[in-house]
Design brief:
Blueprint (H helix, E strand, L loop, with lengths): L2 H22 L1 E2 L1 H14 L8 H14 L3 E4 L2 E4 L1 H13 L13 E6 L6 H13 L3 E4 L2 E4 L4 H11 L5 E6 L6 H7 L4
Antiparallel strand pairs: 1-3, 2-3, 4-6, 4-7, 5-6
Keywords: Antiviral defense, Endonuclease, Hydrolase, Magnesium, Membrane, Metal-binding, Nuclease, Transmembrane, Transmembrane helix
Organism: Candidatus Zambryskibacteria bacterium RIFCSPHIGHO2_01_FULL_46_30
GO molecular function: RNA endonuclease activity
Amino acid sequence: MGRLEERNRKENLQKLILNSVATIGVLSIGLIAPNVMGAMSKMGILPKLRQREYISSSAIKLVKRGLLKFENGSYRLTVEGEKVLRRWQLSNHELKESRKWDGKWRMIIFDIPEKKRGIRKQVATLFNQAGFYRLQDSVWIYPYDCEDVIGLLKTDFGVGKEILYVIANEIENGRHLRHEFGLNS
């Protein structure tokens, strides 16, 4: 297995562990074994041999990174772990799309200063990966409600005052936007 494939497999395992902990609330290695290991093996995330060892090793790495904490024999998600999980979800297009478009545009405008350039790049990358349309350098458009996600993003990155969420009924020459998102009328 190549280095990129190995890194991807490890990242998928860590995401799966974080998602499992987030879903259940707490997770012990004993609970992981019967329920999750079979699925991980079928998905190619875990090799058939030494499954417990791989999971334990990944969980320990997540603890060292501050994303999980281990207490009383169980793993719990930390605040930082929740932030990372939300970023992964946003970057994996896990925004909920309504069945029917309500005809309103969600416009996200941000003015993040130069001294926070790294955060600005991360925010723009997340918007791009999540399927937002870049209208201008710091103006992004999305047709569905995403206010909760934007609120979490503001909190996670500490840019509450630098990001503005606008709901617009109409955008001049919006036909190309409707086409871009595959929306009728």
